[in-house]
Design a protein that fits this description.
883 residues, mainly alpha, 5-stranded parallel β-sheet, 3-stranded antiparallel β-sheet, 5% strand
Length: 883
């Protein structure tokens, strides 16, 4: 979506306000390190914007400025503009924002906040972050983001909120700890000296006695002084003008009518009234609204007459009115006139490519047909930009029957509901439309893709639905990717791994052609998981690493949107025997998923791998905890998604020597899936293998061999190479236990031949303890691979806490299995200085930053290490191999 540049530009300071030394002295404490927020809260007309703009200009302080409007309550829109504003002082911010917004992807406030913090801390140069008209924000998600930035922001970033009412932020706590600077109406009122300076600069100088009287009557209200200045210029009796003022804001509208516009000719007055419906306007828009070719000349006259016209850019292309003046002018229009003007504005904004503004004007015009037409044009760009709340607001404002009449709007509405967590409503809407429509087209294809995707583990017809969707979607690569994913997952659920890989490759290719991160990243997970099952572990790893490189932040860390890629990379690295990286990526992926707002039930498929990685690195309690939490989540969701928690728990208990517990599970083992799930057969074969492990441990070799033979027949037909490796190793163990050494060697050799090309080390290490002594006799099948296996079996059990890898930033986890957030390069440097005994002052000197900035970095290091003191932090860092 295009960015309106004037929203992220500071309004031009007015000369009369630059030198208000008293206000400057009140605002200067905002720059102290301990201050978290500066609040200017006052009614309209108190000059909040001009005061801050003048102060910043006089201090020469860099600033990121964002002028808000009601549409900015959409988190995606607010965040996009905030990154654009930040780009003026941190150029990398605009690029960093790219991965946060995408098709059907409303950003999470904490993820946006964390990314903003990273960009803010890219440099220690101080700047002001100004949010003007903050009272227009009505979104809890935006409030959460702003609260996060206030509480966690670096000391060299100075947030200022300009608002007509106090925001729902922890002001009392900030005030109590001396972290809040606040200016209110009383502070912003002009003194007699300031009023005199202002009036002189405005060409309306008064003697001191009249200035004092004017300040008394207007209560120092700047809007009142501005009104007075307009009326005083050239007036023969200034005393009479002054005495006409009084009562603060209650006389404004009458005064505007009688004194300000009373002296304006009817031609100019009508022009000013007609353009008042636009929050921001250009000469071109004014021409469209009024039909006047001399709009430029009329705007120039209004500006020279100081008629509350505020230029928004240096070129004086965009303008806005003072809010009070716009409110008054709006009262001069009839309802019919207002609707007609909004209609013209909608057409102009649509032609100018500013679709959101066009939609808002169309809705204000009250024409459901025009509004629906514009919403239809703007809906897809809004969806692809992640501005789902705005899209839903537009659709809710249209007559329901008008939305229902447009298959395109229905389809995007359903997907927007789906991505904002209203899954049941999304599916219900999709099924309702599909049941009632006649001929099906692309929009119905999108709805079929949604139903198929949600039905891959619950509906036997999911594959057919996906195939029908693909037949309807044409060249819409974004939704073709989704439909291919549904078809591939349906094949996987039915046990056809080879077909699943082929289809999921198509999904990934379509996502790449769509060209957006939020299309590519979701397509990686199912493809790479299927590749891993099919024996393509190395290809899956290469794809994961490529995508993670393409979605890394400036410090080289994966962005949170790539959580699913990290999870799959963790799985394939675990399969390769790299326990350190495998667990690190699994833990990091789960952590990022939580930051992105992905519920734990949606991660149930990966929990067994997380548990096995934790078990293999010595964290049995943490492994079992992950499985038990996953089981509780599945229970709470009615087992809507299949789970294997109990199966994996039995396997881990068997590894730990608790045969009794494993046997209790095996005696009653059944798939953890809904009765109509297509996955039942696949899960039964998995259970056969897990029960066979238990029966082998019990000495029930014949029973184990029967279960393995049944599983082999199914997996050979499916092409599940990874599972065939495990089956082969267990068959070798069963044959060896029965004294059939030749058969054991044949099975083991076959398993090695399958495992070596993809480097499936853990498949043999996990299940091959009973045949490890036979490995030298099958070495010729894959010499280097077998040598690695022999070394793996001979090695000591891995430590509970893996050592730090050279690749990537310092990352680890604690003994309870909780991930330790990655340290940035700067934080790693701070940690090294702390280890040398450097004080905060020493760190500040070493990094060439302020003391407050050094304290902020130290605080972040302690927080990431879960420490409350330097000593505790250093102990933790040593335990984790970070120093």
């Amino acid at each position: 979506m295009p960015v309106v540049r004037t929203k992220v530009a500071m309004p031009a300071p007015a000369a009369a306000y630059i030198d208000r030394g008293r206000l400057g002295a009140l605002l200067d404490p905002s720059l102290r390190d301990g201050v978290r927020l500066t609040l200017l809260s006052a009614p309209p007309g108190y000059g909040k914007t001009l005061a801050v703009a003048g102060w910043l200009e006089s201090r020469g302080l860099p600033r990121a400025w964002l002028s808000l409007d009601a549409a900015d309550s959409d988190l995606a829109r607010f965040s996009r503009y905030l990154f654009a504003a930040l780009g003026g002082v941190r150029p990398g911010a605009v690029d960093a924002a790219g991965d946060l917004f995408g098709p059907g992807s409303p950003p999470d406030p904490e993820v946006v906040g964390a990314t903003l913090l990273d960009e803010m801390a890219a440099s220690d140069e101080p700047f002001a972050l100004v949010l003007d008209d903050y009272h227009l924000v009505a979104s809890e998600s935006v409030q959460r983001l702003v609260r996060f930035l206030i509480e966690r922001g670096p000391p060299f970033v100075h947030p200022l909120l300009l608002t007509r009412e106090d925001p729902p932020l922890p002001l009392a706590r900030l005030r109590a700890h001396g972290r809040l600077v606040e200016l209110r109406g009383a502070d912003l009122r002009c003194t007699a000296e300031e009023a005199s300076a202002y009036l002189s600069a405005a060409g309306a100088a008064l003697p001191p006695s009249l200035t004092g009287r004017l300040v008394e009557l207007t209560e120092g209200w700047i809007a009142g002084l501005q009104l007075a200045a307009i009326s005083l210029r050239g007036h023969p009796d200034p005393a009479r003008v002054v005495e006409s003022f009084g009562g603060g804001q209650r006389f404004v509208f009458d005064y505007l009518a009688d004194e300000v516009l009373g002296g304006v000719d009817a031609d100019l007055r009508r022009f000013l009234v007609e353009i008042s419906i636009a929050e921001r306007f250009t000469v071109e828009l004014c021409q469209v609204l009024t039909g006047r070719e001399d709009a430029s000349s009329l705007l120039g006259r209004a500006e020279r007459a100081n008629l509350f016209l505020v230029p928004l850019d240096v070129e004086r292309r965009w303008y806005r009115y003072h809010g009070l003046f716009a409110d008054y002018l709006g009262t001069q229009l009839t309802d019919a006139e207002r609707r007609a003007l909004h209609g013209r504005a909608a057409d102009w904004f649509a032609t100018s490519g500013l679709a959101p503004e066009a939609v808002d004007h169309a809705l204000a015009a009250g024409s459901s047909e025009t509004a629906a037409h514009l919403v239809a044009m703007a809906a897809r760009p809004a969806f692809e930009a992640g501005e789902l709340e705005a899209l839903l607001r537009w659709l809710d404002a249209l007559p329901p029957e008008r939305v229902a009449a447009s298959a395109d709007l229905v389809s995007l509405h359903a997907w927007a509901l789906f991505y904002t967590g209203r899954v049941a409503a999304a599916i219900a809407q999709a099924e309702r439309h599909l049941a009632s429509c006649g001929e099906r087209g692309e929009a119905e294809g999108r709805l079929l893709a949604l139903v198929a995707l949600m039905g891959t583990v619950t509906r036997p017809d999911a594959g057919a639905l996906a195939a029908e969707a693909l037949g309807l979607l044409g060249d819409d690569e974004l939704f073709r990717s989704t439909a291919h994913q549904a078809a591939g997952l349906a094949s996987l659920a039915q046990g056809d791994v080879v077909q699943a890989v082929e289809t999921l490759r198509e999904a990934f290719a379509a996502a790449l052609r769509a060209g957006h991160p939020m299309a590519v990243v979701p397509a990686v997970n199912p493809l790479c998981h299927a590749l891993d099952l099919a024996g393509g572990r190395d290809e899956a790893e290469a794809i994961c690493r490529r995508v993670l490189r393409e979605h890394a932040d400036p410090q080289g860390r994966p962005r949170p949107i790539a959580w699913s890629v990290r999870v799959v990379l963790g799985i394939v690295r675990y399969e390769a025997g790299d326990l350190a990286e495998g667990r690190r990526e699994l833990e990091g992926g789960f952590e990022d998923a939580g930051r992105m707002g992905v519920g734990r039930p949606m991660l149930g498929w990966a929990v067994p791998y997380l548990a096995l990685a934790r078990e293999a690195t010595g964290s049995t309690d943490a492994a079992l905890e992950a499985l038990q939490v996953s089981a509780r989540d599945a229970s709470r969701t009615g087992a809507a998604l299949p789970a294997t928690s109990a199966e994996t728990e039995a396997r881990i208990r068997l590894m730990r020597g608790d045969l009794a517990a494993a046997a209790r599970w095996a005696d009653h083992a059944a798939p953890e899936a809904p009765a109509d799930s297509p996955l039942l057969d696949v899960m039964r074969r998995s259970i056969d293998v897990s029960v066979a492990r238990v029966r082998l441990a019990q000495g029930r070799t014949d029973e184990a061999s029967g279960l393995l033979a049944r599983a082999r027949a199914v997996q050979e037909a499916s092409g599940a190479v990874a599972d065939l490796i495990s089956i082969g190793v267990l068959e070798a163990a069963a044959a060896a236990r029965a004294g059939r050494t030749a058969a054991a060697l044949r099975s083991l050799e076959q398993a090695v031949e399958l495992a070596a090309p993809g480097h499936y080390v853990r498949r043999l290490l996990d299940d091959g303890g009973g045949v490890s002594h036979l490995l030298p006799r099958v070495r010729e099948a894959a010499p280097a691979f077998v040598d690695e296996l022999i070394a793996g079996f001979a090695a000591e059990p891995p430590a509970a806490t893996p050592s730090r890898e050279a690749r990537g930033p310092a990352v680890s986890w604690d003994m309870a299995g909780r991930p330790v957030e990655a340290l940035t390069a700067r934080e790693s440097e701070v940690l090294r200085l702390m280890a040398r005994g450097a004080s905060n002052a020493d760190i500040a000197e070493g990094l060439t930053v302020s003391l407050g900035t050094a304290k902020w970095h130290v605080g972040h290091v302690l927080a990431k290490l879960g420490a409350t003191s330097r000593t505790q932090a250093l102990v933790r860092a040593q335990e984790l191999g970070l120093v």
